[in-house]
Each structure stands twice: as C-alpha cells, then as structure tokens.
Specification:
The complex is a heterodimer of chains A (318) and B (416). Chain A is 73% helix and 3% strand. Chain A has 318 residues and is mainly alpha-helical. In chain A, a hairpin with a 2-residue loop joins strand 1 and strand 2. Classes of the chains: A mainly alpha (318), B alpha/beta (416).
C-alpha cells in the first residue's frame, strides 16, 4: 500500500505540471475567446531557451530568464499578430495560432536539430529527497511541486486580491465597460497573453530535464492541455487545477495497476467467452489499464461534455 | 582505300571505347529512408554514413569494374510504406539498380514485396534490395525473396545474444520486459520470454507489458512498477523518445540492475543519459569496440567526424553493405546484371570488414548476414569514438561469435 502514496506524489507532479500549462491557456481563453493552439509550443520554447541559457549561465539563470523571454515573445505575438487577426473573427485567430504552432516546431528543429537535447537536472537537486519502501522520490520532483504550488498561490492572489486582478476579472466579463472607464483593455489582453505564455515557459523549463527536450514535446503535451481546460471548465482557474490533478492521478494509477478489462467485465457479471482467440471482441477483452492510461482523460472529456458541457467549474452556461 | 577504312573504323572503335571509359556509368544506389519529419535525424545520419563509405571505401580507391563510381541517390520516404513505393519507382526510373533502406520494418516489408513484383515483370531493369537495419525476422523467413539481403542481425538473433549474456549472469533471477505497443515491441517481448524459458527456466518474468508508442509523457508510473516488482534486469526494444523517457525514469527511480536495450544510443540519447547510464545501459548490435581494433577503422572514424562533426558512426554495418556490394560487382564483372551480382553476394565470405577480423557470411538459404554480435555497455569513451560528442559511447562487454549461424529459417528461396 506504500505504492499508493508514491503514486499520489507522482500524480501530483504530473498534475501540477499540467496545471501550469492549462492555467495560462484557460486565462487567455476566458479573456479573448481564443483557443491558443500554440500554447504548448511556448512550453517547448521555454525548455529550449532554458537549455541554451543553462549551458552558459547554469540552470537557475535559465529558470529566471527563459520564462521572461517566452513571455515577451508571447506578448509580441498578441500585439503584432493576434490583435490584427482578431478583427476578422475567431476562425482566422484559430488558424493563426495553429500555423504559429507549426512554425515554432519547424524553427526549433531548424535551430537545435531533431535530436534530444542533453538538458540535465542541476547538480544541487540531483539527489534522492526521501524514499518510501524502496521507491525513491527525487529532490527535483519536490522542487517541481513547490514551484507550481507557489505559482498557483501567486496567481490566485494577484487575480483576487489586487487592483490589477480586479481589472482583469472585470475585463474578462465586460471589456467594453472597463474600456469606457478609462482602462487600456488591449494592454491588459497583451499582459495576460504574455503572462500565460510565460507560465507555459516555466513549465517547459522545469519539465525539460525530466520529460525530455525534443521537437515533439509540444505535440505530446499539446492535446492533453486542451482536454484539461475543457474538463475543468473554460476560463476557470480552480477548474484547471482540479482537472489537472484529476488527470495526473487517473493516468498515474491506471499505469501503475494492471487492471484488466477481463476482470472488470467478469466483475459486472459478463463471463469470458470460451474461445477468446476467435471472438471478435478479443481486443476489448485483452485490454489492460496501462495500455489505455493515456486515453482515459479523453474518455473523461467526452463524458464531461455529455453530462456537464460547461465543465466541472465552468461558470458560463452553454 | 580499304586500309584507310579499316584504320578509320578501328580509330572510331578505339575512340568509342575510350569515351566509354571517360563517361563511365555511375553505379547508382538509391537510399530510401526518412529525411524529414520526426525520424529525420536517424535518416540523415545514415545517408551521411553511406555517402562517406561510398566515397572513401570505393570511389577513392578507383571504383568498381576498373573505374565505375558509386553514387548515392537520396530519397525521402517519411517512414511511410506508401511514400516508399513511389520513391522506389522514381529511383528505378532514374537508373538505380540497388536500393538501400533500414528504418522501419513496415517499410522494408512493403519494399521487398514491391521489388519482387517489379523484378518478375521487368527483367531488364531488375533491382536488389540491400536492407541495412530493418530487423523484422519475417524478412528473411516467410517473406524472404532472392532480391533481399540483410546486413543487420534480425530481432531474434539479437535477442538470442542478449539472453546468452543474461543466462550466464546468475545474479539475474527476475526479468521485466517492457516495450512499445506495436509489432516490433511484441516480437521482442515474445522472443525474450520464450528464449529465457529455454536457457534459464529458473528466471521469473515479473512483468511483460506494452505501452502506447510515442504517446507516454511520463514513464514514472511504469518505472515504479518495475522497481516494485523486484526485477533484477529490464529488457526493452524501445527507441527514440520512448527509450530515453523509459530509461531515465527507471534510473531516477533508483533501479540498479542492467537495462538491456536494442537502441539506447546515438541521436541525442547517449548525451542525454550521460553519467547516469554508465554500468546500467546495455545495447545489442554488430560492429566493433570503441575505439575499433583496426587502425584503418580508427582513421575512418576520425575522417568521418572531421567531415560531419555532429554525426555519429552509429551504424557500422553500412560500410559492410558498400564494401560487400563493391566486391560482388567486381566478382560478377557487371553492375547492371543484378542476378549475377546477387549470385556473387549470396554465400559470400567477407573478410575485409573495417570492424572485424572474423569472416562474415551471407547465408545463401535466407540472405541473412552472419557475423559477431556484441553486447555493448554505455561507458566513458574518448573522442572521436564517443556518441553525440558527449564523452560517452559504447564499449563491448560480451561477444557471441558467428551469432545464430545455425538459426532456423522458413525461407523457401525462389531463384530466377
């Protein structure tokens, strides 16, 4: 049963990482009504920039500088790209971000090549923090948990307790009124886009050394981020958090325990066909949970869309 | 008058002969492998190794048939069987008589079938398929044909060598088998289970599992299970990002036993593992120690690294392909009649390899090259014999001589 605790920690790490990506995406969506397809590409840029900086200045400077660069690039994309496309409606915006994602991937391959980058965990964190019955928890994972929790608390504080946060929240729901009151709404949009992409950058910086820094990293994580914000409810920060943790734990536990479809079906009273190898449902009977762990979030998304289309914490009734 | 005509004729004849020598026909070798997309790094590195081998080992030494040069024509198949067949047609139209391909057994299966068909229908433009890396055993068993030659040991031969090494290690009592959920991953798992049962019945398979290919973000849960199972060793056929992710997670989670792999080297993987993989990662392949024993092989690698500083000499069998083809063409006395070349190639005993002093034998019954197979360890290796310029590379730990020389084959070769 010690393994349960270990899996809880592993799932927490995965979930919090997902949260850092989905938090920015859901904020950007609630503000501009745009699904930013290039969001995961900013995550990839974060990892690559941090790798490049870490060669010259070490990991910690990478953690500091790379998200800033990514944020500035993100703000630039909003100011000079999205804002111009915005007047033509949502579809051109979607296509714009989609094209941007492809462009960033090609650029990364052009500059850094197609190989894995040797982006390593800093020596200061390269030890085992503690072990639970033989399963070591690396210090780096503890560090990841702390960084993401700190970011969540910081975001929550800024959004709910500060003047800037209130203006942002107001601009989310009533942009015209906020503008009439004399606030610079386009600037707020640019700021939110910049911060959102910078958050993705932070996620890239701290995930790069453990999940690998390679041109496919945006693609691997990209789709699951959308699933997260749909499950959590578009535009809800709490929803993003809960959905991220939920997905982190579901996939971790599904991979850790060999739950077989045969056992489930037997459990609900369907008996195994005698000549299984000839049965047309053979593949369904043979499925085990680790095999399908990574598609479980998609199944969850479909269920959510059917029974609660606005997501777990969504406040916009569809 | 007559005399002058004779003289003129013979002069013309001499002229035509000499022009033929000047405009000697190049021997065109079509390289059909991924040059764009996710697997391009492997493909482009392979292409460089072929071009370099043709240039240094054949053309710089005067070519074949007293002056014909090897020319490598690159074709991008994007690892798609469909795309490969289109490129095959283009290559044949451009006059290529030799097709080399290696990445993906799916592509190799499509190519070998298409080439068999083409050669039956077009006796005057027949081609040979020199497979340097696709390791599906079927290619030299039920799907074998006269036109296909394989220079890499197939998956079962590699597993036989791996299990030989495991069988001798009495510390290994429990083995965990994990792989990608597709034909190759399954073939590796099946071979591991059946061969271990035969060689060491006391070894317990504590895990045998497949994961989605290219979709897993974080391998930590799998690694937890492997450690929790109490396994002494792990066997995996994973490659690319799946290999790196799995290996890193297993090592980070405190696993201390050996991890036996097929592809845990080069293309950034060696550099990314760095110090953490030392004494843990093992890889089964043909080739030679690093640095290689023959001085000319050392010079060859140095020259290759001078030309391609970011490249890796990761597929040493490529030089065997080029040298054996050159030898077969010279023996056959023709580069265009590929049936003669194939006859020279089959049953060839090749002793000139850069990487081995031993004899390599192209088995006539299935066209599978029999050679020494090594188990390499991920170790510190000095430049330029390291991988990814990382200071780490492959050192031979265990050798099976003439590995699987008598492995059974179901091939029923139909000869033209």
């Amino acid at each position: 049963m010690d393994l349960v605790l270990v899996n809880l920690i592993d799932g927490l790490v995965t979930g919090l990482l997902l949260f850092m990506l989905s938090a920015g995406l859901t904020l950007i969506f609630s503000m501009m009504g745009v699904l930013n397809f290039a969001h995961a590409s900013f995550y990839m840029l974060g990892a690559y920039f941090a790798y490049q900086i870490s060669i010259a200045l070490g990991f910690w400077m990478g953690l500091l500088i790379a998200p800033l660069i990514v944020g500035v690039i993100g703000a630039g994309v909003e100011r000079y790209g999205l804002r111009r496309v915005h007047q033509y409606g949502h579809v051109p915006e979607l296509i714009f971000t989609f094209g941007l994602a492809l462009l960033i991937e090609e650029l990364v391959q052009f500059i850094w090549g197609r190989n894995q980058m040797p982006y390593q965990i800093p020596d200061a964190l390269n030890f085992t923090a503690f072990a639970i019955s033989g399963n070591s928890i690396p210090a780096y994972k503890v560090f990841m948990i702390f960084i993401s929790v700190a970011i969540f608390i910081g975001l929550l504080y800024v959004l709910t307790k500060t003047r800037v946060g209130m203006i942002i929240q107001a601009a989310l729901s009533y942009p015209r009124t906020v503008e009439a009151l004399g606030h610079n709404v386009p600037l707020i949009f640019m700021g939110v886009f910049g911060v959102g992409t910078a958050l993705a950058g932070v996620a890239g910086v701290i995930a790069g050394p453990v999940l690998g820094t390679f041109p496919g990293m945006a693609f691997v994580l990209g789709s699951i981020v959308f699933v997260t914000i749909v499950i959590g409810g578009l535009g809800s920060l709490w929803g993003a958090l809960v959905a991220s943790l939920l997905i982190g734990w579901i996939t971790t536990f599904a991979k850790s325990y060999n739950i077989r479809m045969e056992d489930i079906l037997n459990g609900i009273g369907i008996s195994t066909p005698e000549n299984l190898s000839d049965s047309m449902f053979r593949d369904i009977w043979a499925v085990t949970s680790p095999q399908i762990a990574d598609i479980l979030p998609y199944i969850l998304m479909v269920l959510i869309l059917i029974f609660r289309p606005y997501g777990l914490f969504g406040n916009r009734d569809a | 008058m007559r005399k002058s005509i004779k003289l003129g004729l013979s002069a013309a004849l001499a002229l035509s002969v000499s022009t033929a020598a000047v405009f000697a026909e190049n021997v065109k070798i079509a390289f059909i492998d991924p040059l764009s997309g996710g697997f391009a790094a492997t493909g482009i590195n392979g292409l460089h190794q072929f071009e370099f081998a043709a240039e240094t080992l054949v053309n710089a030494k005067g070519g074949v048939l007293g002056g014909d040069m090897f020319e490598i024509l690159p074709f991008d198949n994007k690892v798609s069987p469909k795309e490969s067949l289109i490129q095959l047609q283009v290559a044949i139209d451009q006059g290529a008589r030799y097709i080399v391909q290696g990445n993906s057994s799916g592509v190799a299966n499509a190519l070998t079938e298409a080439i068999d068909k083409h050669n039956r229908r077009n006796p005057d433009s027949q081609v040979l398929f020199l497979n340097y890396s696709a390791v599906d055993p079927a290619l030299t068993n039920e799907k074998c044909n006269f036109w296909h030659f394989r220079f890499d040991p197939h998956a079962d031969m590699k597993m036989a060598a791996l299990t030989d090494m495991i069988a001798e290690n009495q510390d290994i009592k429990k083995v965990y088998v994990i792989g990608q959920d597709y034909s190759f991953g399954k073939a590796v798992a099946d071979a591991a289970v059946s061969m271990l049962a035969e060689k060491r019945p006391d070894i317990e398979i504590v895990g045998n599992e497949l994961h989605p290919i290219g979709k897993v973000k974080d391998f930590t849960p799998y690694a937890r299970k492997i450690v929790a199972s109490g396994a002494d060793a792990v066997i995996t056929g994973n490659w690319g990002a799946d290999m790196l992710g799995l290996g890193k997670s297993i090592l980070e989670n405190g696993f201390e036993g050996p991890i036996f792999t097929y592809y845990a080297a080069a293309d950034g993987i060696t550099a990314a593992f760095g110090e953490s993989g030392v004494d843990s990662l093992y890889l089964v392949a043909e080739g030679d120690d690093n640095p290689p024993s023959k001085p000319e092989a050392q010079e060859y690698i140095q020259a290759f690294k001078a030309k391609y500083p970011d490249g890796n000499m990761s597929q040493t069998r490529i030089t065997n392909v080029i040298q054996m083809l050159a030898q077969a063409i010279d023996e056959a006395g023709t580069a265009t009649d590929v049936v003669k070349v194939a006859n020279a190639l089959e049953d060839m005993h090749f002793t000139n390899s850069l990487w081995s002093t031993a004899d390599m034998h192209m088995r006539p019954e299935d066209h599978q090259l029999i050679q020494d197979i090594h188990i390499f360890g991920h170790q510190k290796v000095e430049a330029p014999y390291d991988m990814d310029n990382s200071g780490y590379g492959l050192k031979v730990q265990y050798t099976v001589e003439n590995a699987s020389a008598d492995i059974a084959t179901t091939c029923e070769m139909k000869r033209p």
